[in-house]
Amino acid sequence: QLQVVESGGGLVQPGGSLRLSCVGDGLNLNTYAVGWFRQAPGLEREGIGCMTTVVSSRFLEDSVKDRFTVSRDATKNTVYLEMNSLKPEDSAIYFCAADAFRGFQSHCTMNEREYRLWGQGTQVTVSS
Known about the structure:
This protein is mostly beta strands. The protein has strands at residues 3-7, 10-12, 18-25, 33-39, 46-51, 59-60, 68-73, 78-83, 92-99, 117-118, 122-126.
């Protein structure tokens, strides 16, 4: 069964950092576009950032682009979301999702409906 699995969430103080991982299980994630999304209680899921296999495709929403980074490690079949200067409002369940269609394209998308494979999510809580 093809799936992606997130890890790396946890409790962190404001101003702290976390690195989330998205690993391909049963699939070669190095051929997929990957998007990161989050959902806070009572709110709709929102896109944060994405990238295809093309490094220049990396995209981050304005709300996080000065603090978050998306990257890949092809040797580990993993895409990362590096989060710095975390704020309480960053608290949410974070999801990664994979899209085979855009894997080698120059632009990724934050349209959720374009992603076929979703992980179960990892909880991030920013609190003192």
